[in-house]
Design brief:
Mean pLDDT: 95
Number of helices: 13
Number of strands: 20
Length: about 475
């Protein structure tokens, strides 16, 4: 099937930014529009920042940043009359995130004086439906998690299923100007219009994967925000929207490894993208051409993500410049941690319940958690983050208070003069609240791409205001 569009036999996909709210650049969008763009599409969320955003139904981005990006994108959509698609709205893609983004979009539309038809796609899941699906043997575990149980489902505050492109296509075919989607695979929201216009399936999905993070597939990701992808019958071309940036085969092909354990296979709803035979060639100074992408159809499944609150944490922070501590940070950590546990056992006892203390040595190995190579140069200073985890906030704080004297004055060698470390805040103990955890890492078999998706319309074309 030939690609059907109005830009010389190819579909042009403008990806303005890797994630809505991260900073769309107006000049880049203008460049993309001047090339003859068929659709503007962007992801707006991720699991990267942890489970709290799904459990709480909030975005990590502030409202002003999202509104700023939408002002640019919705103005471009209205000017050119092309679709605007946003996936995983509000960070985690729950119903609250879609509604939050829609509220901003309606506000922007009224400020711009435009009246788009907005389709809202919801993919938050009913616990009762998932329990029924599980009882029918249609939910399967990924990674290290075991079989789904009703208790696992009930432990989640919110559960979403990652959509494919089909609900976006259906919304556009029903007349949507803007589609705001709940949790969606990053690739699907970009692949939707190319697939709708008849682009080869493998090329459309591969183009979506390469473009999902905007300029991340360029040689200078900080030098731009977005990319323009042109998808034809036998290839797709990718170029940065910033004319000062460029793509090369290495930067483009490397993106198949981004958030993907296999550089050749990418599992998506309804199939697998196979780029084993793909070829990446420099087309001109700024662009790369990709050929050979293939798609293998599979039974339709959607990934489930569920999150809920667990135990509670209280934290404290100190900075240490003590020479004998810095000379052997590992030994100090072990002595320090043992003394803090002993302090809790001796002052609180069994009432502390199932608790945990961790010490994270920033400036040493707090990020990796791995042992530092022998002979490593002592740091100039370290920051020590104390984290107490317990069944209640009150107990986590009680544990922190019990540890406070040792935490700020524990010496490398007992019996020596007590040091005083640099505490960052007063009061020292900071209640962090619940620990939010991902509880599900499963896929659900569906009767089709629309079974677990609900559509709602906000038709501003009928708005009399």
């Amino acid at each position: 099937m030939a690609v059907k569009n109005g830009t010389g036999g190819a579909v042009r996909l403008l990806v303005p930014v890797g994630s809505l709210g991260a900073g769309v650049r107006a000049a880049e969008v203008r460049y993309g529009l001047e090339q003859g763009t068929d659709v503007i599409a962007s992801d707006a969320g991720s699991t990267d920042s942890g489970a709290a955003y799904l459990a709480l139904g909030i975005s990590k981005n502030n409202r002003e940043a999202v509104k700023r990006d939408l002002l640019i994108l919705m103005a471009a959509q209205a000017e050119k009359g092309i679709p605007l698609l946003i996936g995983s709205c509000g960070q985690a893609g729950g119903d609250a995130g879609v509604d939050w983004t829609c509220e901003i979009a309606v506000e922007v539309a009224r400020e711009l004086g435009i009246r788009p038809r907005i389709a809202l796609l919801y993919s938050e899941q009913s616990k009762e439906v998932l329990k029924r699906k599980n009882a029918e043997g249609k939910i399967h575990a990924l990674s290290v998690l075991g079989p789904m149980t009703d208790a696992m489902i009930d432990s989640c505050d919110h559960i979403v299923a990652a959509m494919g492109p089909e609900p976006y296509i259906a919304a556009l075919e029903a007349g949507a100007d803007i589609v705001l989607g709940g949790r969606t695979t990053d690739t699907a929201v970009l692949a939707a219009v190319p697939l709708m216009r008849g682009a080869p399936t493998g090329l459309a999905w591969h183009a979506g994967k390469i473009g999902e993070c905007g300029a991340q597939c360029s040689v200078n990701p900080a030098g731009g925000a977005g990319v323009l992808i042109t998808i034809g019958d036998q290839h797709f071309d990718v170029e940065p929207l910033s004319t000062d940036n460029r793509c090369v085969p290495e930067s483009v092909s490397a993106h198949m490894l981004y958030e993907n354990s296999d550089p050749f296979l990418l599992v998506e709803p309804g199939g697998v993208l196979d780029v084993t035979a793909a070829q990446y060639a420099q087309l001109d100074a700024r662009s790369v051409r990709v050929t050979g992408s293939e798609w293998v159809n599979k039974p339709y499944t959607m990934k489930l993500e569920g999150a809920g609150a667990g135990q509670y944490q209280t934290i404290m922070l100190v900075g240490i410049e003590q020479p004998d501590v810095l000379a052997d940070v590992d030994a100090f950590h072990d002595k320090f941690l043992a003394a803090l546990y002993q302090r809790v056992h001796s002052t609180i006892g069994e009432a502390a319940g199932d608790f945990h203390i961790s010490l994270r040595m920033y400036g040493w190995n707090a990020v990796s958690g791995r042992p530092v190579p022998k002979g490593a140069t002592p740091p100039r200073e370290i920051g020590v983050l104390f984290v107490a985890t317990a069944a209640t906030q009150e107990m986590a704080t009680n544990i922190a208070k019990a540890c406070n004297p040792w935490f700020f004055h524990f010496p490398m060698e007992l019996g020596t003069e007590l040091p005083s470390y640099g505490f960052a805040f007063s009061p020292a103990d900071i209640e962090r609240g619940p620990v939010y955890e991902f509880r599900l890492n499963h896929v659900v078999e569906t009767d089709g791409p629309h079974e677990l998706v609900r559509t709602k319309w906000v038709d501003l074309s009928q708005d009399n205001q």
